[in-house]
Amino acid sequence: MIKQKEFAKRRLQLMGVAGAGSVIIVRAAAQKVRNNDVHYPYRQNSDFLYLSGFSEPDAMMVLLPQEKGSRSILFCRARDSHREMWDGLMTGTEGAVEQFGFDEAFPIGEMEKRLPQLLRGCERIYYDLGKDPDFDQVLIGWMNDFRAKTRKKFLAPDEIVALDHSLHEMRLFKSRTEITAMRKSVRIAAKAHQRAMQVCKPGMNEAEIHAELLHTFTSNQCEASYIPIVGGGVNACVLHYISNRDPLNDGDLLLIDAGAEYDGYASDITRTFPVNGKFSGPQRDLYQVVLAAQQKAIDVVRAGNPWDHVHETAVQVATEGMIDLGILKGSLDEALEEEYFKDYYVHNTGHWLGLDVHDVGEYEIDGHSRVLEPGMVLTVEPGIYIPKNATAIDEIWRGLGIRIEDNVAVTRDDADILSSDICKTMEDIEELMAS
Ligand code: GLY
Ligand code: MN
Ligand code: MN
To answer: Which CATH fold topology does 173-434 show?
Structure first.
């Protein structure tokens, strides 16, 4: 668990970036209705979680950086014994101070009365406009009121600064405790993937494998960090395949893309393996290409290398491999230059990973790919997908979809592959499935 002290440190760091005279406002995620009075499972806004660990809806954080004694304030639901009979214990304002380390806490119902007072004397508001249009209007209304009424009697904010940039730059660099949480998330995902390999047999349904993944997540007190993709045969070529309802056929491959969420942190892992436990000839050849592309790409995950070097490396190895197998025609230079590989290598090779699966953080700075630095965590996930209707190439390849995805932390030395324990070579996969 991330400790109260670390959350307080993050709030202080953000307040340091914003500087005295600023006020930072972060709103909790709203609860989403599924239908009538039934809600989707609640997930806190990751910015809010990062700064507090507080996971209830109807809350707002106000941070007031000051030269002497910065303050953090939480507006949250007041405890209510009737509501608690339906929904369980609430933190309440006392809990917000005692358990979450806020300097002060007030019931969310008092926000409209108290917030304008807190804004008096501030020059600028750090806030993400556009995510909650109703509150945007309230805030802008207050600013206009201030402007009309103050006549310079007191200082009032007349500027809204996007919060994203400074906060997301902090979130991009993971602390030691965050890496530990991510390792746990990966470890649980590893169990889920290995269990899926062990139980998979021809004649099962994708839904049964989906259920096995959820069994592992739930029994480890986690949830899935996104809806798992369980695609047998040609379904593996549908990148966001989540219906997971088709039979698993002898001779087909199965692609599973599934991760856990532990303490708010996501893992995001893909393995592709044969439903019957034995790779066929063409499956073996294509798998070897994707694996080689991934291994070479992981080799360049090093502090100092540009981020896009990871993708370029994977694409080059995959393209070379596809030419050798006769899937692509022409020379390597031509296939890269004319981007022939894009018929079968259709997505980027990775993304930042953290509290969000596709985590925050810029990929470019001043129009150039940013350089990898220790503390960044990313996925490395090359994939080759040959549609059923790719009639221009030999039919032995058609309908094959293979992706291999690991979670990798950048260090000062070699990459730290958080998911290195999950079977990945064909020998290891076949051995596990036979056991
Ligand atoms: N699971 C989503 C992705 O791999 O990016
Ligand atoms: Mn994935
Ligand atoms: Mn991914």
So the answer is: Creatine Amidinohydrolase (3.90.230)
